[in-house]
Amino acid sequence: MFSSAAIFAACSSKTPSDTPTAAVKGDTTPALAPLVIDTTLGAVTPTSAASMGKVPVLMVHVVSDHDAAWTVTKVRFQRTLELLYAHDYRPITVAQLIDKRIDMPSGKRPVVFTFDDASPSQFGYIERNGTLEVDPESAVGMWLAFTRKHPDWKPRATFCMLSGAEAGRSFFGNKNIDGQQDAWRFRKVRFLRDHGFELCNHTLWHANLSKYPDAFVQEQIARGQLAIDSAVPGYRVRTFALPLGKWPKNRALAQKGEWRDPKSGVVTKYSYDAILEVAGGPSVSPFDPTFNSHGIKRYTMFVDAVDTLVARLDRSKNGYVVP
Ligand SMILES: [Zn+2]
User: What is the pTM of this model?
Assistant: First the structure.
């Protein structure tokens, strides 16, 4: 999506050790009921015929006022949460999917939301009287409001982030684009982790990895991971999303590699349990022998595509249902 992007020294400063707290000071709106934060992941689900069904792994980019390529409207995003909830879907992360930890009651259906590119529309802050509030019209704001209304719709989704791209795609906004400040970026990443969302690497600035040499591929991936580590020190990133769905020429480098910072000499290694593609979904069940955690198929959320998918899985009865 980004034809060109300048690499800048994003997110190089280390933050002091950061304590996982349920609510980061100033990040919640006092007028609303407190969120119940539960970051535990469920036990491994037993198998049955129904647990061999398809799982929607949805891919979301921009949540905005108008339908467009890679964009879904705020109204539609909210309606989709309602539609999925009414059809007994409950969210899990990619990590839960690959670990087969589908922690919901019998009869419910897992859905995985993946948010790509870290745009401000996914997670915005509004500053009011010196206090930061989650923009209620950003995807995270809408999600948490939905969780307050339906506590069994947990904060479980996977954010595949860029840390140094243009157009505000740097940990959900920088350079005052859409009113988002550079200083808020790490705080947003920590907020997501603290609330139970999964942090996923989507590289430094979204290069088409199929066009570059091995060393460049590893630098792009390693620097994305390094930036997440700067925001949340010690966080183990398990999921990687391929920019544009393009594999590097040496496919193995998407899963595992390393990069030495020429300035500091520090070597950053990465190794991922899950790799996300951009199309081909819904995904087969993680219990299906053909499930490949290093090439998970996704389904793009745009216009009424999710409505169509939900209806199709209802009709065909080949969606995953918790036994
Ligand atoms: Zn992307």
Answer: 0.86
Q: Give the confidence band of 191 by pLDDT, cuts at 50, 70, 90.
A: very high
With 0-12 CB in 10 A as exposed, 13-18 as middle and 19+ as buried, what is 42? middle
Report CA(117)–ligand 1 centroid distance (Å): 5
> How many domains are there within the chain?
1
pLDDT category at 174 given cuts 50, 70, 90 is: confident
Which pLDDT does position 38 carry in this prediction?
65
Cα 267 to averaged position of ligand 1 atoms, centre (Å): 25
Q: Is residue 308 part of a domain?
A: yes
Q: Ligand 1 center to residue 168 CA distance, Å?
A: 13
Does some domain include residue 24? Answer: no
Q: What is the CATH number of the domain that holds 285?
A: 3.20.20.370
Distance 194 CA to ligand 1 centre (A): 23
CA of 60 relative to ligand 1 center, distance in Å: 9
